[in-house]
Write a structure and sequence with these properties.
The chain is of the alpha/beta class. The chain has one domain: Vaccinia Virus protein VP39 (Rossmann fold, 3-Layer(aba) Sandwich), CATH 3.40.50. It has helices at about 10-15, 30-40, 50-70, 85-90, 105-115, 135-140, 165-175, 195-210, 220-230; strands at about 75-80, 95-100, 125-130, 150-155, 185-190, 235-240, 255-260. A 7-stranded mixed sheet has the order 3-2-1-4-5-7-6, sandwiched between helices. Strand 1, helix 4 and strand 2 form a beta-alpha-beta unit. Helix 1 crosses helix 2. The radius of gyration is 17 Å and the shape is globular. Bound molecules: S-adenosylmethionine (SAM). S-adenosylmethionine binds near residues 9, 81, 85, 131 and 158.
Amino acid sequence: MRAGEPSETARRVATYRLRFPRAPASLGDPAADDRLQADIAAARQPRTTGLTDYLSRRTAFFDHTVVDAIEDGIAQIVVVGAGYDARALRYAKPGVDWFELDHPDTQADKRSRLERLGIGAAGVTFVGMDFAQVDVGAALRHAGHDRGRVSLFVCEGVAGYLSYEVLRSLLAALSRCAAAGSRLAISIPLQPTSSRGQAGRAALATAVAQVGEPLVTALRRAQLATLLETTGWTEVRVADPSGATLDGDAGGAAFVIAEPAG
Ligand SMILES: C[S@@+](CC[C@H](N)C(=O)[O-])C[C@H]1O[C@@H](n2cnc3c(N)ncnc32)[C@H](O)[C@@H]1O
């Protein structure tokens, strides 16, 4: 990320997301979410690119994961690398506590937009941090997260921007905060195996590197299994963006649901 500036990739995702169908929920304030995304997208031309379909599917995966968790009674949701994701508004429900972790520069911009737009975020605790610098578990605890209660941890579109070591320590920290019954939902870039996939990844890598946010981590399917195992998580479901179970290396990304090991 560029020092002192909010994440440009987070802004781009918000611009795309504004056009996607969203999972409905009986409570919450979808209009507040839409207003925030529209504020970010202002003056940007919505374009259809090679990423559109992928991001639409990713949005649907995380929307449904959040809605399902709330319906199942999970009342603590930690959004890791939240960017301009406003599911905390869209799916707000009395009694559900949200924690948004993000780089302070991105989070400050989000909070100032919410304030300017007059959008309250009373159910959200904002915790600014650089995952490479801080003890994520301690920061969460200081922010009021209760590791004795079940949580959903959401990590959308972040893993590829973290070094493998930072990703490892982040996932290990989250598992130590995860009571039995908690869930982790994370998208992880996989190393493309086809020449088409490699070309797509190279184009994306160039585009994000140009805005100061290089993609640094992409795993093989087997490495993903090891990463989860060694950080205290057990795979529940690993799918490709189409929703098909992912056993081998095919697929440019994995959408993962995991639970605390043991
Ligand atoms: C591509 S954006 C995704 C944002 C959001 N999850 C979404 O899907 O809209 C990546 C996010 O990761 C955050 N991020 C990247 N590196 C980080 C770091 N080292 N510490 C904290 N946050 C980081 C950025 O601020 C940004 O919000």
